[in-house]
């Protein structure tokens, strides 16, 4: 630790005023994230109608959450959706970025056009795409709400359309970040396009790829508004005893429906599901980051 | 010195900003209290705000109207009830709501607003016997008919006295649709803005007749027998098979059935009395007939009358706010101007000093009742876990619309009957 008289003017001023700049952020973080998170964790062990009247009920909510068939189904559906959407989005975004990273006339317009869908909110997007899909599917006298596979691929197409542009921007930044000297050296050494891409570009972009994979993964898992607007979980698979599963319901929507769909009995269970959901998304995120870190070497 | 004072000014300004942010929104209520009405019908928001404004001008008591977006009332109620300044006036829609919130409703027995009521038929009681909520208006639903078009097609309203008559007229109009330039039923869309007409309202015919067989329900039955499912199917089939659009296209909706009726493209429109003002402007001859569905003796059927509009005063609100709310409610149903606005918005209000209703469909309901027809009450308000239950029904009806086979109807029956039992279990576990 340096003594005060050894510090530069800049360091002194940071030391003196740092709290003023950090304070509001820390306060917002505590109020907007930390406190609700801890409260949510506590509520997951409670039985409650109103938050102010919560009573501890042990692990009941977790037992109910794990034995809920619809929650398990939504987990599997979400996992499958995430794997497919992550793969497709990144492949498309990488390909588009590969071509648009080149400084050719008019490329900026293309980049803007590809990025624009990302500026539209999820609910609006869901309704727009539902009209598009149904406009097409009505020719075959069906609808996106009629079959789970339509709902699944509908969601994939919609999310790709929304996110490819966003990921593309990150990939373009990654391409631009590659040292031109390395590329030039590869060219002099006679590397062809494929070799340059596989041996030079991709290894140099592992960090970018890692970021994009992570974003696509968490975005896929957390998807809610597009799911609500496009299918709302429909169609339903109904068993003979009247129990039902919303076949295109993802985890976030399942939690929402549990909270608001089943009078006050569902509140604690929904809260427990939300905690499980958080642990799951964090674990997958961390695992994936570790994996790409290892690749980076 | 200059630098230091500048820093101090910046510091003071920052603190002032923080304090302003923290205290913005905090308001203190004066001795008069205030009224905070959490409204669930977006279509009545404008009228309620008008009434609130008049009351504020006259008495100086603040009336805050918050309207939940369509279909989100339960969520908004849930979060608002937890706030330090909760709504003082809440709307209960059915027994489900009373079971959930009844303990937060003050007992209205013997209160000034209860004394203004001219009937107790629309009151809801909590399990401990308290009068938790009072129905502040009632409505009716059935099949809205364009009388002029019925006559133009060579038929008469006298034929529409039972299912057979309705079927003959509807099928004939549908068969000659291209020649006549209009069709029988407007679209029975299954999207969220329209599906409730069939999963909530039309489904009531099954519940009502079953309830009548049981000698009346006082609470939600755990199971349904489904005795009248065939009748539900008869009427539903008639609607979707004799319509302006193909049944296969109903799943996502977007056909605007109201507009089809208003522009004379369809003769029949399944809906309720709240549509009167909007419909009568374009179709002055519009009348409402009951759900005829082939049940024996249905010539004596009347319209489906009931309400999902109950006022309850929140016991979590402060005493002054509760008192202010009570005064406001009494004023609403006794003041000529306010009562006129509210009655025109809600239909009929069952209070001694309320304005007379000008709603033509409610006049139809009264005419049926005066002729000795039985009123079909709203047994549908017992639907357990209503949103979940109806979603299951919509999904099954979507499949049925796409392929109107018996096996698909069996799925509708499962969602209707077994779905009821499962949702009852989930709501009461």
Describe the protein.
The complex is a heterodimer of chains A (297) and B (429). Chain A starts with 8 loop residues before the first helix and ends with a helix. Chain A has helices at 9-43, 60-66, 69-100, 107-115, 122-137, 148-177, 180-188, 193-204, 206-222, 225-230, 251-261, 266-296, and strands spanning 46-47, 55-56, 236-238, 244-246. The longest helix of chain A is centred in the N-terminal third of the chain and has 35 residues, at 9-43. Chain A folds into two domains: 4-43, no CATH class; 62-296, Orthogonal Bundle (MetI-like fold). In chain A, β3 (236-238) and β4 (244-246) form a beta hairpin. Helices cover 72% and strands 3% of the residues of chain A. Chain A has a two-stranded antiparallel sheet with strand order 1-2. Chain A has a two-stranded antiparallel sheet with strand order 3-4. Chain A is globular. In chain B, β4 (123-125) and β5 form a beta hairpin. In chain B, α2 packs antiparallel against α15 (336-346) and α14 packs across α15 (336-346). Chain B is globular. Mean pLDDT of chain B is 90; it is low at 23-29. Chain A binds chain B through residues 20, 24, 49-52, 130-131, 134, 138, 141-146, 232-236, 238, 240-244, 246, 257, 260-266, and chain B through 14, 18, 74-75, 78, 81-82, 96, 99-100, 192, 246, 248-249, 251-252, 254, 385, 387-388, 391-392, 394-396, 398-399, 402, 411, 414-415, 417-423, 426-427, 429.
Please, what is the CATH homologous superfamily of the largest domain in chain B? Answer: Periplasmic binding protein-like II
CATH architecture of the largest domain in chain B: 3-Layer(aba) Sandwich
Helix content of chain B: 40-55%
SS field, number of helical segments of chain B: 18
Q: Estimate the global geometry of chain A from the Cα principal axes.
A: globular
Could you give the order of the helices and strands of chain A?
Answer: HEEHHHHHHHHHEEHH
Total domain modules of chain A: 2
- Name the chain pair with the biggest interface and residue counts per chain: A-B, 36 and 41 residues
